[in-house]
Amino acid sequence: MSDNNKALLSITEVRPHLFLAGYGCITPSLLKQYNITHAVDCTNLKTKAISGLERIEIPVDDSLLAKITPHFETVIKFVEDAKQQGHNTVIYCAAGVSRSASLTIVYLMVTENMSLEEAYLHVNKLRPIISPNISFWRQMIDFEKERTGKATVELISGRMARPVPSVYLRRAVA
């Protein structure tokens, strides 16, 4: 099994109370292994409830038209409330690559006062397969500008079919 496949099928610990994953990892045994009792589900799939798992659904597609910004505060509050109660949370989407990675990055930006660049590089080091879609990048950059007055990531355009986040020049490769 390649490292990418292993990453797709694994739960990544971002903080002792916060995990990032794809839907395939959301099993009772893995949740128990990581002591996860709370989940942010941004798959847009109709999934069955899992006993003992408190879950919120974030209805966002992994598309260039999707608006993820309106969900930032809801996710941050849910994860922080669980943390205050001593619970662990997993944020997951279909593959743990775009939607859930974006929400995890923003969570770190807000709760740990990280820059977008720092938060992305940290999550990317732990889970090298992350790759938020370009629309989510635009929204995270705008969010950082609103919060801090500046952006630490820019979109580079040139000969590529679409812009590339500047931070990709410094990322870990899966």
UniProtKB/TrEMBL annotation:
UniProt xrefs under Gene3D superfamilies: Protein tyrosine phosphatase superfamily
Domain Tyrosine-protein phosphatase: 10-149
Domain of life: Eukaryota
Keywords, alphabetical: Hydrolase, Protein phosphatase
GO cellular component, one term: cytoplasm
Keyword hit for Membrane: no
InterPro entries in the cross-refs: Dual-sp_phosphatase_cat-dom, Dual_spec_Phospatases, Prot-tyrosine_phosphatase-like, Tyr_Pase_dom, TYR_PHOSPHATASE_DUAL_dom
Pfam families: DSPc
SMART domains listed in its UniProt record: DSPc
Every Tyrosine specific protein phosphatases domain range: 70-128
GO molecular function, one term: phosphoprotein phosphatase activity
Coiled coil: none
Record-linked SUPFAM superfamilies: (Phosphotyrosine protein) phosphatases II
CDD domains: DUSP14-like (cd14514)
Record-stated family: Belongs to the protein-tyrosine phosphatase family. Non-receptor class dual specificity subfamily.
Protein name: Uncharacterized protein
The species this protein was found in: Caenorhabditis brenneri (Nematode worm)
